[in-house]
Write a structure and sequence with these properties.
Length: 252
């Protein structure tokens, strides 16, 4: 199975390298640039959680009466990731989701939360995600990015969802960005402390333990089915392409 994982990684390597070298990172060189980046990047944090929960819904039993679904191993893998993403710890050791932690970081640094607040408010009032995308004044690149993710989350087979979750959201934080963030934090420690903690936590948890669990999940769901592996490759590549579109939106 590791051979199939290697083939998939090779298939998306070029797109991943382009993302890591995207010119948007060169524009995030002060607090103002970081504020603008966060106001759009937050959508990637939010829809990541939605994609994660769609996997949990498909791989575990979330209806009553409870019955066992799938294999206990895949149930463990997804529940372990959900626990870490939905109930991690903030900089003070309090339980918090990564999305809520990101919002706290935005508020501390003075980044606008207007767009994400509007979408969340519409969802809570009963709007569908399609209605939110259509009726909120979001940049077109954000709409394209969200449309792709939620189409996957709501309609794709589980192995495709898992592949997009794992490879479309691989650690895409280049060393350059970390260096820039350290400088901005040095200049504005009282405004960037939570965001710095979020990035460090993201690298530690998502780029480490969770990545290994996600790889195992993809391998389990694709198994020995060549068609599933091919679908996983194509969906992962498209996900990275849409992330590049999102980065273009931030750059613009």
């Amino acid at each position: 199975m590791s051979n199939q994982i290697s083939k998939l990684k090779d298939h998306i390597q070029s797109a991943r390298v382009q993302l890591l070298a995207h010119p948007v990172y060169g524009q995030i060189n002060d607090l103002s640039g970081l504020q603008k980046f966060a106001s759009i990047h937050v959508f990637a944090v939010w829809d990541f959680m939605s994609l994660l929960k769609s996997l949990q819904i498909g791989l575990t039993s979330v209806t009553l009466p409870w019955v066992p679904v799938g294999s206990a191993n895949t149930r463990y893998l997804i529940n372990e990731i959900v626990a870490g993403e939905e109930s991690d710890i903030d900089e003070n050791g309090n339980r918090i989701s990564h999305f809520e932690l990101y919002l706290n970081a935005m508020k501390q640094m003075g980044s606008s939360t207007i767009w994400i607040d509007q979408v969340i408010a519409k969802i809570k009032s009963g709007s569908t995600i399609e209605e939110c995308i259509e009726n909120t004044d979001l940049p077109v690149q954000v709409k394209q990015f969200l449309s792709f993710t939620f189409d996957i989350a709501q309609h794709a087979p589980l192995h495709v969802k898992a592949a997009v979750f794992t490879f479309g959201r691989e650690d895409l934080i280049p060393d350059m960005f970390t260096e820039i963030l350290n400088k901005i934090h040095g200049d504005n420690p009282g405004k960037v402390a939570i965001f710095k903690y979020y990035i460090e936590r993201h690298i530690e948890v998502d780029g480490g333990h969770h990545s290994l669990l996600a790889l195992e999940m993809v391998a389990s769901l694709c198994g020995d089915d060549e068609n599933k592996w091919e679908e996983a490759k194509q969906a992962s590549l498209k996900s990275l392409t849409l992330r590049s579109v999102l980065w273009d939106g931030i750059l613009a």
